[in-house]
Write a structure and sequence with these properties.
This protein is mainly alpha-helical. The protein has helices at 23-36, 49-56, 60-72, 105-129, 132-150, 156-169, 174-182, 199-221, 225-253; strands spanning 76-79, 83-86. Residues 21-89 form the HTH gntR-type domain.
Length: 256
């Protein structure tokens, strides 16, 4: 077990975050900068949740979403019950979509188009090839997402796990590696916080996502490849349409 001290012991102390449009994205940016600058070395442990909450002045949800994004980007590894540790650069994927490239909702829409093409086929292959262990992982991920939504959580981490489980169920090791390319953009709501949407609307959206996940999982469980592809395509198309509507609202709200 790695006994290195938390990052604060190495002289890293984060100042409180100002309230930008997206606290999660800002915390990800700040921690990633510390890692890339070498102030956090491979094997170093990130500050605890409580320490990050105190230093950055953010909620536990923001901290957890930021760590999940860093993990998706390959910058940190998490160990259950121990914490998050800086990953070895040699183990990181060399190509991925950088969140800094996502300058507009139009960029997000293009990423979702890419996902529709790849993930629809992944769902079909998962239906054809899943074994008992893969199916159990998918069903557990769907249940965890449902529980998180009912608890009022953003369910980003649970959403990531659901898609990871499907990619793993294809039996093709290149599909999970594709997730490294997408990085944190796999779940755009962790880097995009549309300001024109009320909390109630976001909750209703997550409840619809929960139903879509259930249909995808059911099709995979029954071995219906065509139905699984269709269910995944409908799921991601609905996400694309949602962000397209938000892009339209933002455009209409701009002065002039």
């Amino acid at each position: 077990m790695d006994r290195r001290e938390p990052a604060a012991a190495h002289g890293i102390e984060l100042a409180p975050l100002a309230p930008p449009a997206n606290l999660t994205a800002e915390l990800v940016r700040r921690l990633a900068a510390e890692i890339r600058a070498g102030r956090l070395s491979p094997g170093d442990r990130l500050p605890t949740e409580q320490a990050l909450m105190r230093q950055a002045g953010v909620s536990r949800t923001v901290v957890r979403e930021a760590v999940a994004a860093l993990r998706a980007e390959g910058l940190v590894l998490t160990r259950q019950g121990v914490g998050a540790f800086v990953a070895d650069p040699s183990a990181r994927g060399q190509i991925r979509i950088d969140p800094a490239e996502m300058r507009s909702l139009q960029d997000v829409l293009q990423v979702i188009e890419l996902r529709i093409a790849i993930e629809s086929e992944a769902a079909g292959l998962a239906a054809e090839r899943r074994d008992a262990a893969a199916l159990e992982r998918i069903q557990q991920a769907a249940a965890a997402f449902e529980a998180a939504v009912q608890a009022g959580d953003s369910a980003v981490q649970q959403d990531l796990e659901f898609h990871r489980a499907i990619f793993a169920a294809t039996g093709n090791s290149f599909f999970p590696r594709f997730l490294e390319f997408l990085g944190p953009m796999l779940i755009p709501r962790q880097t995009v916080r549309p300001q024109l949407e009320e909390d109630e609307a976001r909750t209703a959206y997550l409840e619809r996502v929960q139903e879509e996940h259930a249909r995808i999982a059911a099709a995979i469980a029954s071995g219906q490849a065509s139905a699984a592809r269709s269910a995944m395509r409908r799921h991601l198309t609905a996400s694309r349409d949602r962000y397209a509507r938000l892009a339209g609202r933002l455009s209409a709200a701009e002065p002039g």
